[in-house]
Amino acid sequence: MLYPQNFDVIVVGGGHAGTEAALAAARMGCKTLLLSHNIETLGQMSCNPSIGGIGKGHLVKEVDAMGGAMALATDKGGIQFRILNSSKGPAVRATRAQADRILYKAAIRDILENQPNLWLFQQAVDDLMVEGDRVVGAVTQVGIKFRGRTVVLTAGTFLDGKIHVGLDNYAAGRAGDPPAVTLSSRLKELQLPQGRLKTGTPPRIDGRSIDFSQCEEQPGDGMPGGVNEGILPVFSFMGHVAMHPTQMPCWITHTNARTHEIIRSGFDRSPMFTGKIDGVGPRYCPSVEDKINRFADKESHQIFLEPEGLTTNEYYPNGISTSLPFDIQYDLVRSIRGLENAHILRPGYAIEYDYFDPRALKSSFETRQIHGLFFAGQINGTTGYEEAAAQGMFAGINAALQCREQEAWVPRRDEAYLGVLVDDLITKGVTEPYRMFTSRAEFRLQLREDNADMRLTEAARNMGLIDDARWDAFSRKRDAVSRETERLKSTWVNPRNLPAEESERVLGKAIDHEYNLFELLRRPNVGYADLTQMNGGKYASPDVSRETLGDLSEAVIEQVDIAAKYSGYIDRQKDEVERAAHFEKLRLPAELDYMQVAALSFEVRQKLQKHRPETLGQASRISGVTPAAISLLMVHLKKGG
Ligand code: FAD
């Protein structure tokens, strides 16, 4: 049957990429259809029940700054919040939350079901409708044909998914869900470049069988006994503490020599070590057998016992992801302190799945081969909910822009972690599941969690992604930051008007000439509150008080303080950004035949011909394309080649 309505954007897959893609396209006014296997699993966390962390939290804040759902759903489902690296510089500070799976999913579904322009439909998609070199829709398992101007594919770990437990394996998208085998074959027929990756998950444990008295308690920030008691962190710009449900602690235990012995005894039945698994797994997130194999000298590994929710006894033992046979899993879990009587609710497993080489995507995430077809999430070789959500929102935006016949939106590497993610994927591809780290961003000083809104909300508003309430709150914050910065820069403190003891108390030592407040705030030991309260509150501003700005006041003060403390570094980074921008602006002709650029080595010519970078900046980041090759290419272009 041909469905009687046509859509602008059809999103296939309702995971973290798919839900953000569908929301973004619908918010931009496109008639959007979200097709997924099962409406009950929209926004499901396949693995660990947590959102954020270093690099990943930055992406969540960016998605949030553009009106996405992940941070808000985390505020509604988060049962433990922490600010990681809180004692380090603001660039690497990151929010992480433990989420109640059920509450998180319910929050995502609520947002989806209340989004105008968005239709949900439960069915497996088995085929894409392609006419010439353009996608025109998707076909479901029972033959329903949905026509759409664009299709965003976000099939996660489901494409030809295969689960391994020991030497046993079976086809699945993740435990309890069917694989997408027919769709995978269809994509292979379309000859999109593809490979296999793998990831894994630990066995889950019934909390009633854990002896918590043998484990170390780890409260979240703001919880009794935790950092900043009484002050719970919040993820979303529009979130507030009152949204958070009851908070719960995590627990810490460790593996030991006996655990390692048990794990080693299962190596001969490990699908990883016996060659049953071909797919490459994430090196930085290894299975426990991989850790024991690679770090044979290490006597113990830390395990976090993370609650899966408020209405379940299930615990996620973070650190013992495994695909060893179940009898080994059973013994290894019971060899761990506190888990001697543990009951396993679900076995751990590894999953292998198809991904597609992201170098075959344009910088908008549209496939080069098939117009109107976009890929986002795990299908592009990444891992992680946050990486998926950011890509989904990005692909949804670009599918919507294409429907509006507008140019693609692609943030630069100095504007957003999203820019780094997209650029890394399309220029370098992946050799293992890609996850975000702050070290991937060369301009990380300006890509902070705290200024994600300042970097992205205006662009999002211009594209139609930001509602009036968020825009109003953002504008008030932005204007207050700029007014307060100006006020500090133009308010002068004269030593004659400042008592010496006051100057020494706040500034460390008496000042000998006139300074403005912004200059004084640059000093590492000078806090905003002390400075503005100096001299009987003479320098305070009613404009940034709680009375005027409510919850926004702390965020405004934070921005002003960071701008002052880091202004030297940030200015230096701005120079680097300007230099790099020169290359980014130089677009390479789409029809350029690199094989004819004789000055380049054969290898470089081949690489450029294959990957067809859109800008000189992108070309410079392809592995093997040297700075010398870039200079030669510039000369060629200047000559009109
Ligand atoms: P998914 O969340 O997989 O969602 C895909 C969606 O598409 C699902 O709703 C599915 O039903 C739907 N779908 C698929 N095919 C079709 C079709 N043909 N028709 C209709 N609907 C379809 N990440 C980490 O960061 N750390 C980890 O340790 C980690 N371990 C993992 C372990 C396992 C076992 C698994 C399965 C995943 C793990 N992940 C881990 C990855 C994380 O779950 C994914 O990165 C993230 O969920 C990807 O989001 P996505 O939206 O791309 O895909």
Please tell me about this protein's structure.
The model has no long low-confidence stretch (mean pLDDT 94). The protein is an alpha+beta fold and 641 residues long. The protein starts with a strand and ends with a helix. It is globular and about 80 Å long. A hairpin with a 6-residue loop joins strand 16 (302-307) and strand 17 (314-318). The chain contains 21 helices and 22 strands. Helix content is 36%, strand content 18%. Strands 1, 2, 6, 7, 8, 9 and 20 form a seven-stranded mixed beta sheet that branches. Bound molecules: flavin-adenine dinucleotide. Flavin-adenine dinucleotide binds at residues 12-18, 35-37, 41, 46-48, 124-125, 154-158, 173-174, 177, 180, 183, 199-201, 285, 351, 377-378, 383-385, 388. Homodimer. Heterotetramer of two MnmE and two MnmG subunits. Keywords: Cytoplasm, FAD, Flavoprotein, NAD, tRNA processing. NAD(+) binds at residues 281-295. Belongs to the MnmG family. It comes from Diaphorobacter ruginosibacter.
